[in-house]
Every structure is written in structure tokens, then in C-alpha cells.
Design brief:
mainly beta; Immunoglobulin-like; 2 domains; 5-stranded mixed sheet; 11% helix; binds copper (II) ion
Amino acid sequence: MRRRLAVLSFVLAACGPVPKADKPVPPPAAPTAPAPAASMSHGEAAVGAPMTAPDRAADAPARSASHRQKIRMVTVHVHHQIAPGVVYDAWTFDSIVPGPTVRLGVGDTIDFTLVNGANMPHSMDFHAAEIAPDKYYRNVNPKDSIQYQFVARVPGVFMYHCGTAPVAAHISNGMYGALIVDPRGGRPPAQEFVLVQSEFYMGAASGADSLHGMDWQKVLSAAPDYVVFNGVASRYATHPIPVPVGKPLRLYVVNAGPNRISSFHVVGAIFDKVFADGFGRPFEGMQTWNVPVGGGAIFELHLAQEGLYPFVTHAFADATKGAVGVFRAGDPKGSAGGH
Ligand SMILES: [Cu+2]
């Protein structure tokens, strides 16, 4: 308990305004603007300057009412900002890293089309599908497309990714996303989020745009420069995610890798339930849960008190490289506004 309080104290201190020693302290008044929360990382390391905006919310999408969903994705190569001023030559589904989150229910059909708008072969492998890879996960050439269907049989949260060889390169470059399959009858009400952990392996910047490409040797050595949630280093540390105090939260976590296990943990909380891959009987009262590369897990929790609760991979080298975010429960002093 004492350790947990110490952590919270650190987080609060990291967010508060910096007092000036050479002036008398004024009487209490309206709260001053908080200092940027960018140095908040569970006390381990600075995690970078804030992005200008939280350009991607972590909110889980609502499920479609339709039991047959037409999903069309286009592979596109884009410039993707991993951290302020750090731009990567990303390979994507629909121009974003991770690709769009797909959600459907058990028994629903996905009618999928992949269009290759890039200049090299790509493909699509859905972990939620049970179909022949050699037939459906084959390469799609530039300006070509593939279409196939599958029925989601198993509930959970699943990875999807490009399966074109070398797969480690296509995943390292950004071609992955999450697919949620809701059980029949759905899950109990909760505020829901999707977090996809992944890695970037940076080659030297080149060209007028200072664009980074992938360093293949770093990929083979499993030595990433950045480990991130939802495509950007420390995005939700610089822009904490607002949540209610004491209310049920549900996190759909996918670890796209391609190399690093995610030891997922929320500082200041114990998971009420963890569903491995989102299926079967949950584990209860868990502090940390490993999400394997290529796997997923569903975490149910509540944050007991008003405050700032970092979420991390507890493999702290990776948290220091950017796999850190913060839940802002309620309106803790010094953290309101601006995030
Ligand atoms: Cu690809």
C-alpha cells in the first residue's frame, strides 16, 4: 500500500505546477495550468514531449447491428509520426497505424475485401478466422484485390496483420490491428478501450523529410527503438484518457509485436477479471498479465479513487521506450484540462 501511494505521489508531483522559490506563495486560488504530463512514466524515465493533439482516441468502436459486415481495407504507405518530429515510412491498412478496429459478434459474417494501393505485395491474415491460409492469406499484387468471407466462431480480441514475407518486416512497418468478437448476449456494460502494443525499429533518417525506415538487423535482434500503444510513443501519457472513478472499465489489448511480450499492468489497480484471448473462464484478481505476441486479452477493472493511473508493459525497458499511458480517473487536482 505504501509503495502504491508513493507511485501516486510521484505521478501527482509530475503533473503539478512547478513552484518558484524566489516569490512568496500566493493564497489558494483557481488552479494554475498544469505542467505537461510528458515526464510521467511510473517514475522510470522521461517519455518525450507531448504531441500537439491526441490524434487517435483509444475508445472501442460500437458493434454494428448487422450480422454481416462488409469490411474493405486499402493498403497504403504513409508517413506516420511515432513521436514528435519522428516520422516513419509506414505500411498501413487504411493509412493508419494500427489499422481500423473491427467489431462483430459470434456467428456474424465478415465479407472482406483487401485492395492493394501500395507498390509491393501485401495480404491479410485474420486471427479470428478459421480458413485456409494458402487460399485466402495469399499475396495481393499492387492494384489488385482479394475478397473472402469468414464467420466469427470464437469470442475475444484478435490480431489481424499482413502475412506477406518477411512477416516481421510487414508487421514492424505498421500492418496490424485489432478485431473484437463479442460473445452472444454481449458483455456487461463498461467503458471500453482498445490498446494495440507494437514496436518500431528505426533506420537512419534520410531525405528532405528526415524519414525513417526499418532497420532489419534491429528487427532480428528484437531491439526496438520504440514500443508503443496505438502507434505512437507515450500518446496517452501526454494525453491521459479520462475515465470515471469506480466504474467498470474494459480494455481490449492486442500485442502486435512483432517481438516483445507485453506484461500488461495498470499502476494502482488490480484486474477484476482477465480473459486470456477474451475467451473461457476469466482469471480474477490479477496484477499483471502477459499478452503474447500475436495474441490478445480482455481486462476488466475499476479505478477505486480519483487520480492518475499509469498503464504500462511492466517489462520496463519497453515502457521507457514508449509503452506507457495514463488513465485520469475523475478530476484529480492539477490534471484537468489541456490533455
Ligand atoms: Cu504487407
